Amino acid sequence: MPGSLKEAQTWRLLSQVVPLLQAVMTPKPAGPPDGGWGWVVAAAAFAVNGLSYGLLRSLGLALPDLAEHFDRSAQDTAWVSALALAVQQAASSGWALVFAPALGTLSRYFSRRRVLAVGLALTGNGASSLLLAPALQLLLDNFGWRGALLLLGSITLHLTPCGALLRPLALPGDPLGPPRSPLAALGLGLFTRRAFLVFALGTALVGGGYFVPYVHLAPHALDRGLGGYGAVLVVTVAAVGDAGARLLCGWLADQGWVPLPRLLAMFGALTGLGLLAVGLVPVVGNEESWGGPLLAAAGAYGLSAGSYAPLVFGVLPGLVGVGGVVQATGLVMMLMSLGGLLGPPLSGFLRDETGDFTASFLVCSSFILSGSFIYMGLPSALPSCRPASRPGTPPPERGELLPNPQFALLPPGGPHSTLDSTC
Question: 3-state class of 422 per DSSP?
Fold first, then answer.
């Protein structure tokens, strides 16, 4: 009996020690490296953004030629860009096959400098617009709209090597196995989380106005009396402001001075006000004028819209966890596409009915302001009256979606970030 008791104790001890040894010896995935190959992924995402949304922003210069050739209204030609935007995002085809994986993979490679890295990648939009807007106008002048679009199509083939640079990365919090159902694979379960649902609704409304300048900023400048290259200058000024603001806002967000949801609501509202200013500028005297008021309004819009863009993707890991960030990125693009499908055609319809784009920009700015107001329902989006105790939860990489916003949503700066407060 004593021997049997000793044997049982030995086996019990081994049953406790062996799992511990296995846990120690099993390699665990490290956290986001905050650099290394992540900068290569950032460069690939930069090129992807430039060859997708940067090109889309410049295509507005070709819409007057399309309208003239096919004898169509501004509303009809607006569907060209709107359908391209909606199909590529909602149906996950075209540019979406590279854009969503590029941004989602980039978010997984960074933690402390995540919003800065996303902002750097998204400057590809402005840099591409800066180059492609005058290039497209030159191509339209020399080759017509057919030749210009064929040449732009050949340029977008450079998306292929960008996709080859997206190296997978294993992180803590990743699912242990593949999704068990198609709904889980699409990430639709994220809509059961209150904070993501608020974010989704606000983003869908913002999308209704956010893409209107991509399509109609250049035609609006032409309607205001500017010549072809004057309209190019307006697009270029907006692009430069957009690109610079994405970097600056990315750096600011990573400092942790202000919670990311609060920055998202604030810069979303400023984007709506910038779009409002673009719609209210007066008509210039002649085609030789530089259109100073429109340039100023376009610059203000570019600064605010550029500040908003990295925050949309930078706030996602804190809401859904880094394991679901790729799915969440795809869902965000789908939601913005719903607004993008309706916004430009509505803008074109209002232009046809009123004779200019003033009412178009005013209505679409109201969409952005409404979405920004909804963002105030996110955790820590509003300042409150007493310091919040720091929650005993993991870092933002695992997500901090709580049943009620009684704790602060930590920014990517981690535990050293400024405490928020709550009531």
Answer: strand
Q: Count of alpha carbons within 13 Å of 103, Cβ hemisphere only?
A: 32
Neighbours of 419 (CB within 10 A): 12
The pair of three-digit structure tokens given for residue 42, joined into one six-digit string: 């950032």
CA 38 remoteness from chain centre: 18
**Block residue for tokens 């996602």:** 316
Q: Name the pTM for this structure.
A: 0.70
Cα separation, 372 vs 126, whole angstroms: 23
Bridge partners (DSSP) of residue 422 are 386
Task: Report how far residue 401's alpha carbon sits from residue 300's, in angstroms, rounded to the nearest whole number.
Answer: 33
With H, G, I as helix, E, B as strand and everything else as coil, classify residue 22.
helix
Q: Backbone phi, then psi, for 128, in 5-degree steps?
A: -65, -40
Residues 373, 309: Cα–Cα separation, whole Å: 17
Cα distances from 189 to residues 23, 91, 193, 379, in angstroms, run 31, 19, 8, 19
Beta strand residue intervals within 105-250, DSSP E: none
- Radius of gyration, CA atoms only, the chain: 24
Contact between residue 171 and residue 322 where contact means Cβ atoms under 8 Å apart: yes
Out of 26-40, 66-80, 84-98, 398-412, least confident range: 398-412
CA 414 to chain centre: 22
| Helix ranges (DSSP H) in 91-226 | 96-109, 114-155, 159-164, 182-186, 194-210, 212-223
Structure tokens given for 78: 């607006």
For 260-275, how does the pLDDT look when each residue is reduced to its tens digit (9 = 90+)? 999 999 999 999 999 9
Say if CB 109 and CB 305 are below 8 A apart: no
User: Using the 8-state DSSP alphabet, how is residue 122 labeled?
Assistant: H
Phi (first) and psi of residue 386, to 5 degrees: -140, 155
For 377, the 3-state DSSP assignment is: coil
Q: State mean pLDDT over 207-226.
A: 82
Calpha distance 56→39 (Å, rounded): 25
Using CB atoms within 10 A of its CB, is residue 3 exposed (0-12), middle (13-18) or buried (19+)? Answer: exposed
Model confidence at 55: pLDDT above 80 = no
Tell me the C-alpha distance between 101 and 176, whole Å.
20
DSSP H/E element including 387: strand 386-387
Q: Is the pLDDT at 106 greater than 50, yes or no?
A: yes
Cα–Cα distance measured from residue 227 to residue 57, given in angstroms and rounded to the nearest whole number: 18
- CA atoms in the 13 A half-sphere facing the CB of 1: 0
Please tell me the predicted confidence (pLDDT) of residue 18: 52
